[in-house]
Structure formats: C-alpha cells, structure tokens
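Comment on this:
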Amino acid sequence: MTKGIGREFMKKTQYGYMDEPDQNKGLPQPPLVLDYDAAKPRIDLPAPAALQVPQVDLRLLMEGRRSVRVYVEQSLSLAELSYLLWCTQGVQEVTPRPATQRPVPSAGARHAFETLVLASRVEGLRPGLYWFLAMEHKLAEYDMGATVADKLMEVMLKQQMVRTSAATFLWMAVAYRMMWRYGERGYRYMLIDAGHVCQNLYLAAEAIGCGVCAVGAFEDERLNDLLGLDGVEQFVIYTATVGKKP
C-alpha cells in the first residue's frame, strides 16, 4: 500500500506531535455556539418531551437499524424534527466551566458542531434551509431560496434522496472550538464526534418510524461555498437524510 495523506494525518495527529494547545496557554475559549443574525425569522420548536416516543427495546432498535434511501411522501411533524434535533445536538445543561451537556458524547464536552436542516416535508415549516439554535431550541431561516434543495443535491453527488427525504441534516464543524483544547489532534476527535452524532440520529429516527442514510459523499468546496462557509475554520463534516420508511 502506498503512503498517502491518510497515513500522514494519523501520524501527525499523534500525541507526540502535539503543540501546547491554546487552553493551556490561558487563552479564552471560543463561544459555545455561533452567533446568528437576530434579524432572521425564528421558529419555536416543540419541547422534545412533547413527542410521545414508543417504548422500544434498545437491542431491537439497534438490530433493526439500517440505512434507508427510499422514503414515502409523508411529512415529519414539527415535534418529530424537534426530537431528532434534540437527540443529536440538543443542550441539556450549561455547566460552570462553561461547557454544554448534550445527549451525544463529545471529546472534552467541546461539541464543535452546528446543525443546518434542509426541511423539504416538515409540517409547519415552509421548504428551505434552517439553522438549529441549540441553546434556544429554535430554528432560524438560513436560505429559503426555491432552488436550495436542488443545489444541495447537486453538490452531494446528485443523490436523489436529498430531494426525496423529508429533511436532510448537515453538521458543520467549528474547528477552533475543538482545537482550542486539543490542537491538531482535535481533528481526529471531530471525526469521531461526527459518528456519535449520526448514530444518535439513526437510533432516534428508528424509534419513531423513520429511516436515515448517512452521506459522506459531497463536494466539500462547493458545499461549503453554497453555505457561505470558509472551508477552514467552518466546514461541513457530515450529512444525513431522514424520512418516513416505506
């Protein structure tokens, strides 16, 4: 096997290569969440506990979990979307450190992700791209253009499930939120954390009769450009489609 960038990444993110992180230098930590334009319309989400989730045996839930690429033309309720957002990036508590406690694990409780949701069929939401305000448990309009779904599908290698799903989750990494504590090794932890988040989505969706398909195939530069991200300090790290199962 020839040596490539993957091997270089694994080598250079070992502890032996770590510089002193900014946390150890006494530099202030970055904000727990990004600021968002206060002028953008906001939508209140139902409390996560408002959704009656069937009691499901965890073993059966895991055994039944599969990637689902075909969905019926049934909308998600706003309560279901709220529940899925909470299960993946909801804020349970802000600790004195300060840090956020959430339903999903994260290295050092850094929680480096922000969530964007393409809502195609969600009751009470007009189709468009929304930003999840985790601290407030609200959505804010991000891109309500008529062609945003088509543009996203195009840069996600024309995968039709982006258009046929009820919603598509896009997780954006805010790099310094993790690098502040872990330096270059933080890139490893962000990739690991992305797996934690998406697995929560799979299991939470399975419990309410929905299917998920994780999507790592997208044109990074074009997707980041489309979302107005610089691709260095802020970039899409993972995506997933969600919809009602046939």
